[in-house]
Amino acid sequence: MAAVYSGISFKLKSKTTSWEDKLKLAHFAWISHQCVLPNKEQVLLDWARQSLIAFYKKKLELKEDIVERLWIYIDNILHSRRLQNLLKNGKTINLQISLVKIINERVAEFSLSESQRSTCAMLSCCQGILSTPALAVIYTARQELLVALLSQLCRLACRQPGGAEVAQLFEVIHLALGHYLLIQQQQVNPRRAFAEVTGHLLQPCLVLRHLLSGGTWTQGQLRQALSRDVRSQIEAMLRAGAFQPELLSSYKEELLDQQQGDTKIGAMKSLLAPMDTVIARLVDPGYCEPSLRAAVIASSVALLYKLFLDSYVKEGNQLLCFQVLPRLFGCLRISQLQEEHVSALTTSDWTSELLVVEQLLTSVANNNIYNIAADRIRHGEAQFHFYRRVAELLINHSQASVPAWFRCLKALMSLNHLILEPDLDDLLASAWIDAEVTDLRTRKAQEALIHTLFQTYGKLRQVPRLFEEILGVLCRPAAEALRQPVLASGPSRVLRECLLELPPSQILDTWSLVLEKFQSLVLPYLRGDADMALKSLSLSSLLHCIMFNMRSLDSSTPVPIIRRMQRTMDRMLQELVKPLLDLLLEPPRPELEPWLRKVSDSALLLSYTWAQVDTMLSINCSQYQSASGALTDAVVEIPGLPSLLPGVETHHWKKIEKFTAQFDSLSKYCLEQLYLQKMKRTLVETSFQSEEALCALRRDAAYILGSGRESLNQRTTASWDGQVGTVSTLTYPVAHWHLVVSNLTIVISYLCPNDVRSLASVLLRTLPMSKAQEGSAEEEPSITLEKISSAVLHSPLFPEMQPLHSAFLLCLTEGCASVLRSGAQGDPSLLGQQLPWLFEKEHTIVTLWENRFAKVGPEGVEPKGEIAQNLLSLVKSDFPVQLGGEQLESILGFLEVISALQLDSLLAPYHVHYFLLLLSTAVSKLGAPCPCPLSLRCLMTCYRLLGYLQRGKSARSVLKILYVSEIFEITLTSLFKASSRFSVDTDDPSWLEFLQVIGTFLEQLLQMLIQTKLSLVLNFGKIVAFLRTLYTEATSGKQVETQNPRGQQLLLVSLTKLCQVLGPLVQERKQQQEPSGALSALLPEAVLQTGAVLSLCWARGAQGRRLPSALISSVSALLEADVGQRSTHRTDVSLATGERLPSHTAFYQDVYSQLLSGLPALAGDPQSFQAAMRFLTLFLLAPELHPKKDAVFISMFHSVRKVLADPAVSGQAIQDLEPHLGALFTQMLEVGTTEDFRMVMQYVLQGLDVSNMWKADVQATLAAITLIKLLLSCPLSGEKASLFWRVSPQIVMALTLQNREACQEQPVPLAVVGPILDVLAALLRQGEATISNPHHVSLAFSILLTVPLDHLKPAEYGSVFLRVHNVLFSILQCHPKVMLKAIPSFLNCFNRLVFSVMHEGRQKDKGSTDDLSVVLECARLVERMYSHIAARAEEFTVFFPFMVAQYVTEVQKVTLYPAVKGLLQEGIYLILDLCIEPDVQFLRVSLQPGVRDIFKELYNDYAKYHKAKHEGERRYAA
After folding, report:
1. Which secondary-structure segment (H or E) carries 104?
2. Where are the alpha helices (DSSP H) in 1347-1431?
3. What is the number of other CB atoms lying within 10 angstroms of the CB of residue 1186?
4. CA atoms of 249 and 244, how far apart (whole Å)
5. Would the pLDDT of 834 be above 80?
6. What region, left, alpha or beta, does residue 985 occupy, with left being phi > 0 and alpha being psi -120 to 50 degrees?
7. Nearby residues of 303 by Cβ (< 8 Å), 6 or more positions away
8. CB 3.0–4.6 Å: which of 65, 736, 842, 1460 could bond 810 by disulfide?
């Protein structure tokens, strides 16, 4: 056969052989072992290479398909395992430069043409060469080939190809860049490296980086990690090529104009202008598409400046680093705006270019390039003049819609405020006062700029200078109507922060300045001028902000400041406030109405501000003499405000009030504030309890509330930012409601009942009735009617405001009752007699309950029957209230509000009223259009609230009008009828949740009956009798289809709750030897009915895939009650009981077998699993129920093992189920025999067999480990305990082997390692007295040393660390003798913990500190372990110096977060406490020089802080 194949090479070269046959022969020759061509691999590769070269040199004509297959053939060879093995064994394969040149030519061709033929195959060949070091040497040896390839690959990528070749192309670029970076590192000729990068790579790489940064390719086309790696490689390549350290002298020669006439011309003389070269290549117009050019240049400018700074920024090079800045800035389009039209740049263009300017200025600030003094003294303010040019450019071409524009100005202000000061007025106008900013991000940037402005001038103590410019801009002629409010929330907050830091003198300077401008530039020209009126309002807002946010004067303030304040206040009142108020007294004319409204806004804002500040100064500063004087009784009689603004007549206020009442405006809001201020002044006076004062307070409160009553009826959705200056017609209702609510504690006491009811009505009306109305958390913080009302509703003070709270409760019940009345069917007068709480006035019915309870007394008994009979008759017939979909939605809205109230603290009349209202809602008939989920939600909410009410302090008041049995009957009768109309499956989660809510409510009813001890036998007898009737109805259908399964479930829930409550009650009475004959007689009947209904429901529920938890809980309750009653009557078992037992026994056994078989399926539902565990525990404790043919212990154990070994059950689910399994296991081990326990231990050891890990049967191992944890949680004694601890050495050995196998896998299965450590710690703790062999304890160290502590996620790291620490602590505390002999091993394990905390707690270049809390907790554990070691000083004495040495050696390698470092240092200080002087000297001598410095610093801190502190404590200790 060898002879046959030896002629293949001749056939491949033969012209007569077709190319199809040649390719088949070549492929066969490559894969066949029978082909014995000498140097076969080289021959076949050369044949394919020569064929391609001949084709591309036009010496051979081939079809495109054949060419592509030749590339694929070469690619298959290059990627074959055979070739890799040959190269690994040292064989040489020569690719030839001609093949590489062909590849480069093809890449260049692809980058210029649209053709995609053979692209993937050729790129795969290229990847195969570059990814194999032995083949890639052909590129690395000929550097120019790699540069050409890289350049063309980047140009190909810049064409933005799509499809499958994108990922492959970038993989090749990644490999090529990696090789070129290695070459750059070995390059000894910096001129060549610079020429290669700038000549061939700079342009395509900058374009490619821009495309990658802009997210041109999606995650599906290109992995983010690969994109990020390629960008990083491009940046590293550009820095290593264009900004090498060796080029620093050339950059200095070019940029700093250094004359070196006497210096010899070196090898670098031809590179005199590297920056010009880079910039020339950057701005060259031909290397990318015109649409991309500007964006590429912009992004590249920031990158190049960053790379330049990274390479050359250091002390002394600041001027050099600056000189690059103007040249790079000159590449941006905005730098040539003088020659271009501004309209040529769109907002998007401005955004991209300004972002670059921001990055440049930020780099200047971060690298301390601009030193104001050095620039002025040494460099003739070269930098300052450049920044001034940038500032002029920005201010002359305002871009207030672009956030980066504000950030650029902020950066310039941070560099030097003098840069912007010449244009400060234009800056304030364009960036603040005249700016139209609506976008939230832009507003944030604007606020940051204004904050920097005020902060800078505040530090310079030049705030008056800044305000002079602000006032100059405000007072310029302008279209005031187009301006936004000067002091919106952002600027106002910034100004407030600034003013709080200023001394009073500067505040007064600023205040006086505003007054002067107001008087000289606005007030004389105000009459009739609408623009001037708007200016006056802006200045008034500014004055308000200044006066409200200055630091208050007090008695310690210097007298000159107080006097000056006094003069300023008097001047403002006489020269500004009163003249403005006088303008309002002119006869109103229709054409002047808009002007008059703005003037009134300004006048009343200043009046309110002056009054507020005057009051504040009067209270805080005893030396301040208020111009308004003290408030006297004579003044209170006047219903106006002369006491607050002296010199203004009462009839003038009447005119002003009459005018402002016509509009919702700022002036009306300020007038309300003035009345509120008057109320506060009145309350401060000692005589405010006089009748005149109280009358005045009531008038003022009524005015405040009545002023905005009509506006609140409009139900506006507007939002308000909380600033007085932004109150308008639109936002006035919100501002008014905010004013009323904020001062409720003052106002509420003086409102008449009608006003209180009106207030409660508004509160209810403005509450959000759905989640959609509450707004999203991402919205800008603002105040709305809904938010204000929600805050009141949830305020702890709301119940304390008794009048409002009571009125609100009545409004709420009226709202619910009105909805219920709208669904009423029948004679209204008759219904009014039957359901008076729905049809009578709310205050009337509440008064009725108050009177009835007053007659009965707190402990009396009201004759019951009337209400219950009415409700029962209505529910049994057909309840006359039917609710449709819209009505249900309305009711649900009201119920959500009720849920927010504190129903448990209601007074008795309100409690009864709400109980009846909620019960009426719950028993209402739900109309056909109502969707079932809505109906269920409404019913669930009603019964939840009823249960909440019955836990309240007035719960007994309901029992004065209704028996518990009657509530029980009303509820279940209604629910039973409603359930037949529900179109919901019996296993639907919403229905099961509903059943749980009903069960909780019924249980609370029965528990309340027991607590009150009111007619127990009568009520329980009626309940049992009613349930008997209900049982008959529920099972009356002859066919299963005609029965009501949901009704049966409701009946089962009620019977279950009856058994759960009645059973323990009967047992408790028997134990206390109280008479319980009647109650005992009721229990068997309840058990009998429960068993019958349960059998029906179980038969239906068992058909489903999973049994519901409620059903299993019912079986448990039945079994518990059944066992309880049999134990009670064990002495005299009746015939009936004896007949009943077998049927129940069979049922229990059936349930038992079903639960055992379905237990793994229940593991996913913790509630069902818990219920199943409860039943199995009870079944286990009732031996008379056990099947005769089956061992219950063995069956239960195997069922639990199935759960633990089930792969579908997650580790977290097992962990959640452990407490329930533990309760079952405790009972199992109590009743089980020693043989049973021996069987359990046998299965444990089988599960721990290391062969399970080899077979990848992880679940078997985890099941065994969980079984050990369960056994350790059980109280073992006697022979079982002895057997367990005899086996424990085998368990420890098995855990060691399991852990070793697990830790060899990658990634390490922490789901196995974690439980192993838990079990090991528990074994060591509980085996303190029983594990006698030290070797078995020492095995724990080998486990700890193999557990990984690195390359873990924060949560995983914290979990593993805690478990390792627990094992170590268990050894330290419980096995001190073993530890004494193995201290080195102990310290090795402990040092792993210490070093891992240092590694995880190091300061990282990138990433957040969100996960630092995990590391801090671990550091605390390390500190605690240090303290435990220090407490055993005698045992560790020899090792203390080595512990310190290891600590400082490791801490030298990292920079820790201060919090982590502090905790670790506190621990090591405890060890240093125990180091004697020779130990310290030994460390100083033996440590390495760098480590020695760390130790010296550590010891100095120890001596300075820790040692000194403790010596001081010992000095005063007994």
Report:
1. helix 97-112
2. 1354-1374, 1376-1381, 1383-1400, 1412-1431
3. 18
4. 10
5. no
6. beta
7. 206, 209, 235, 238
8. 842
Measure Cα distances from 1223 to 1180, 1228, 1270 in Å. 12, 9, 9
User: Rounded distance, CA 627 to CA 622, Å?
Assistant: 14
**Phi and psi based region of residue 986 (left: phi greater than 0; alpha: psi -120 to 50; beta: remaining):** alpha
The larger pLDDT score, comparing residue 951 to residue 986, is at 951
How many residues make up the chain in this entry?
Answer: 1518
Query: Do residues 1502 and 1469 lie in contact, with contact meaning Cβ atoms separated by under 8 Å?
Result: yes
The C-alpha atoms of residue 702 and residue 706 are separated, in whole angstroms, by 6
- Look-up of token digits 């009915």: 1089
The arithmetic mean of pLDDT across residues 1124-1138, rounded, is 50
DSSP 958: G
Q: How far is CA 902 from CA 796, 798, 979, 1285, in A?
A: 9, 10, 31, 56
Measure the CA–CA gap between 926 and 1226, rounded to whole angstroms: 49
Whether cis (ω within 30° of 0) applies to the bond prior to 1166 is no
* Dihedral over Cα of 976, 980, 981, 982: its sign: positive
Answer whether residue 1101 shows pLDDT above 70.
no
Cβ-based neighbours of 527, under 8 Å, separated by 6 or more? 583
Per-residue pLDDT averaged across 276-304, rounded?
Answer: 88
926, containing H or E segment: strand 925-926
- The pair of three-digit structure tokens given for residue 1335, joined into one six-digit string: 């070797």
pLDDT at 605: 93
Average pLDDT over residues 108-116: 74
Average pLDDT of the residues in 263-273: 48
DSSP assignment of 570-611: HHHIIIIIHHHHHHTTSPP-GGGHHHHHHHHHHHHHHHHHHH
Dump pLDDT digits (tens) for 130-180: 888 888 888 888 888 889 989 988 988 888 777 667 888 889 999 999 999
Q: Which of 161-170, 1043-1052, 1185-1194 has the lowest mean pLDDT?
A: 161-170
Contact 403, 438 (CB under 8 A): no
Token code pair at residue 762? 């508004």
What is the residue-averaged pLDDT of the chain?
83
Which secondary structure element, helix H or strand E, spans residue 882, and what is its range? strand 882-883
C-alpha–C-alpha distance, residues 1150 and 1157, integer Å: 11
Contact (Cβ atoms closer than 8 angstroms) between residue 145 and residue 97: yes
Q: Is the pLDDT of residue 943 over 50?
A: yes
Cβ proximity of 951 and 904 under 8 Å: yes
User: What is the pLDDT averaged over residues 622-651?
Assistant: 62
pLDDT for residue 1131 is more than 70 = no
* Tokens representing residue 1046 in the block: 């949901």
- Separation in Å, CA 22 to CA 8, 10, 30, 54, 816: 9, 10, 12, 16, 91
DSSP state at residue 781: P
* Category of 588 on φ-ψ map: left (φ > 0), alpha (ψ -120 to 50) or beta: beta
Q: Does residue 245 have a pLDDT over 70? A: yes
The predicted pLDDT at position 602 comes to 92
Which DSSP string corresponds to 1466-1487? Answer: HHHHHHHTT--HHHHHHHHHHS
Encoded amino acid at 309, one letter:
L
Q: How far, in Å, CA of 915 to CA of 373, rounded?
A: 79
What's the CA gap between 1465 and 806, in Å, rounded? 60
Q: How many beta carbons lie within 10 A of that of residue 913, not counting itself? A: 22
pLDDT tens column, 520-562: 988 888 888 888 888 899 999 999 999 988 888 888 889 999 9
Tell the residue number behind the tokens 């006097």, with chain if given: 563
pTM of the predicted structure, to 2 decimals: 0.77
Of 531, 520, 535, which Cα lies nearest the Cα of 486?
A: 535
CA dist list (Å): 274 to 239, 329, 601, 1094: 13, 17, 65, 91
Q: What is the DSSP letter of 783?
A: B
